[in-house]
Amino acid sequence: MNESKQIIVVNDLVKMFGHFTANDKLNFSVKKGEIFGFLGANGAGKTTAIKILSGLSKPTSGKAIVAGFDVKKHPNKVKKNIGYMSQRFSLYDDMTVKENFRFYGGIYGLNRKEIREKTAHFLKKLDMEDYGNMLLKNIPLGWKQKLAFSVAILHNPKIVFLDEPTGGVDPLTRRQFWELIYESSAQGTTVFVTTHYMDEAEYCERVSIMSEGRIEAIGTPAELKEKFDVKTMDEVFIKIAR
Amino acid sequence: MYAFIKKEFFHIFRDYRSMLILFGMPVVQVLLFGFAITTDINDAKIAILDQSKDPITREITQKMLSSKYFILEQNLQSNNQIEAAFQSGNIKEVVVFEHGFAEKLQRDGKVDVQLILDASEPNTANMLSAYSSGIINTYSLQQMMAANKIPVSIQTESMMLYNPELKSVYMFVPGVITILLMLVSAMMTSISITREKEMGTMEALLVSPLKPLQIIIGKVTPYVLLSFINLIVILLLARFVFGMPTQGSMTLLLLESILFIIMSLALGILISTVSKTQQQAMLLSMFALMLPTILLSGFIFPIENMPIILQWISHVMPSKWFIIIIKNIMLKGVGIAYFWKETLIILFTTLFFIAMSVKKFKVRLE
User: Fold this and answer.
1) Going by fewer Cβ within 10 Å, which terminus of chain B is more open, N or C?
2) Contact predicate A83/A153, CB 8 Å
């Protein structure tokens, strides 16, 4: 593999909370433009790892390079180059769709013209042009999630972190959501996604599965199914989580 | 930064509850404290049991009723009506003149008037008793002077400085300013920060390139502005509705207020770092800030009368020092030379709270 194509490189990453080891010597890398699934049971240490990779939290030891910057030394340069969307959306309910775009565009340093163009572009893509001036609280959950994703990639980040982005929506909306993910991946954005849904794991190009702070398996879904000699990702997951 | 502040205004203006707290509260509080909660007593209803009915008792009765304090509700005929009069509820005081009042005064040079008061409201009873005694004493003194009966007399003459009409609104305005600035600044910021935590938007802000300091400044700037507008509204109300002038320097008053606002904001941030939900932040601000401020700052209850432990606690209340400062500026019209110590105390508290909240904020990021 060509080193320069690696957009996330993690070496012996350790995060301790007191005596509790949340991340135990993580080693993995993600290629540019890849859709990387970061799986694991609740409490396996996924969120801790995402926090470190997005510059929110400092590793106890080890090294992580994200978008070319060391998260320990230059968390702010990392932050400029990533987008982030959590399970809880991160959009403001009491503002309209356009106002949300304007706000997030503003804090990522986009100018007015760029924001206007991007907003128009995304609303058109989501087929929501008539809803630009509607308060977010009046918009259905599935649409909000698609909007949140659009907002997360508004500033053309090199990597977008999605922390369980599709919690609580119907399969059809999930499907549409994944189409958005594919689209931005095709345009060169790396997608780093955590999920509980194993059918979604199948959509990823490569996945890693965490258990008790360690990465137990990493590879393409096909490789993992072969390695554990099972038919679905569900079974892979259950074998490892045990 | 600009985008951030604008967003914050959206939150405030679109939430009718915060609008109500921000703009309804100051007006209601000032008017409430100014008009309703007054410690002066006017038109207290009294009953008189005059068993003598002579010129002197009539004259005393006249004197009492012509003061603005009393209204005659009932003329009683006998002692056993007294109890019933009080039980009826609206009589606050009964004045009893004994049989042969004037005669006894002529004969012995001494006679008793009995004042019976409804002390289920101790403050009112005290004040009515003082008013009545005052009127009767003045009357008897005048009589004695007229009759040239006493060779010497010493009279006290009180002069009320800084608040000559003893208006209670003069006492309340500084307190209301303090409470409102504290409420708006500390409570509203702590609630708005915890709301972002609850909604998950705080995470989004933290992963953005904004620095924590920028987030904090963006959050509090709107509240600084709004608190400041509130302050002006209260001062205008005090000036034009209650005729309370500001004797000292207005600039100084505004500067001290800004310092106090910053202190409250820092406190609000501190509260938000320790509470997880909006309710928690609200309760914490209410019970940890508002109640002690109202009770222990000397706003309503004089600190000198408190048990020594509470007096000590009141020293840690920044609001106590701020009330002293405002009173000094508004009522006495003195300059910074007279309250630089109080100002320093608030300044140090401010720095302390800022340091604490920055530290807490960072710990959360680790």
Assistant:
1) C
2) yes
**Residues A210, A39: contact at Cβ < 8 Å?**
yes
Tokens of A49: 């790892």
- Domain annotation covers residue B160: no
* pLDDT tens digits, one per residue of B228-282: 888 888 888 888 888 888 888 889 999 999 999 999 998 888 888 888 888 888 8
B84 and B22 fall within a common domain: no
Contacts of B209 in chain A (CB under 8 A): 76, 79-80, 107-109
- Is residue B48 included in any domain, yes or no? yes
CB proximity B207 to A under 8 Å:
yes
* B215 plus B109 within the same structural domain: no
Residues 177-236 on A with a CB inside 8 Å of B are none
Residues of A in contact with B199 (CB under 8 A): 88-90, 92-93
Identify whether residues B15 and B135 lie together within a single domain.
no
pTM reported for the whole predicted model:
0.76
Structural domain count, chain B: 2
Please indicate if any CB of chain B lies within 8 Å of the CB of A102. Answer: yes
Token pair 């907002």: residue: A151
Please count the helices (runs of H) and the strands (runs of E) in chain A: 9, 10
B154 domain-assigned: no
59-78 in chain A: CB under 8 A from chain B: 76
CA distance B121 to chain A (A): 49
Residues B330 and B198 in one domain: yes
Kindly state the percentage of chain B with pLDDT values over 70: 95
> What is the pLDDT of chain B when averaged over all its residues?
83
Range scoring the smallest mean pLDDT among A12-26, A143-157, B120-134, B341-355: B120-134
Chain A residues in contact with B210 (beta carbon < 8 A): 107
Query: Smallest CA–CA separation between A231 and chain B, in Å?
Result: 37
Q: B1, B208, B276, B278: best mutation site toward chain A, by most A Cβ within 10 Å? A: B208
Q: Are residues B172 and B293 in the same domain?
A: yes
Q: Which residues of B touch A95 (CB under 8 A)?
A: 7, 10-11, 14
CATH of the domain at B139: 3.40.1710.10
Q: Which domain holds residue B66?
A: 44-146
Instruction: Locate B96 and state its tokens.
Output: 């009893």
Res A5: pLDDT: 80
Q: Does residue B158 lie in a domain region?
A: no
The string of pLDDT tens digits covering residues B24-65 is 877 887 777 777 666 667 788 899 998 888 888 898 898 888
Partner-chain contact A108 B208, CB within 8 Å: yes
The residue among B146, B180, B202 that closes a domain is: B146
- Taking one residue from A and the other from B, the number of pairs with CB-CB distance under 8 angstroms is 74
> C-alpha B276: how far from its chain's center?
33
Confidence of residue A204 (pLDDT cuts 50, 70, 90): very high
Last residue of a domain, which of B146, B175, B193?
B146
Complete DSSP assignment for B105-172: HHHHS---EEEEE-TTSHHHHHHHHHHHHHHHHHHHHHHHHHTT--S----------S-TT--THHHH
Interval A7-49: pLDDT, tens: 999 999 999 988 898 899 999 999 999 999 999 888 888 888 9
Q: Assess whether B51 and B123 both reside in one domain.
A: yes
Decide: residue A13, CB within 10 A, 0-12 exposed, 13-18 middle, 19+ buried: buried
Same domain? For B123 and B177 the reply is no
Which of A86, A107, A192 best probes binding to B when mutated, by most B CB atoms within 10 angstroms? A107
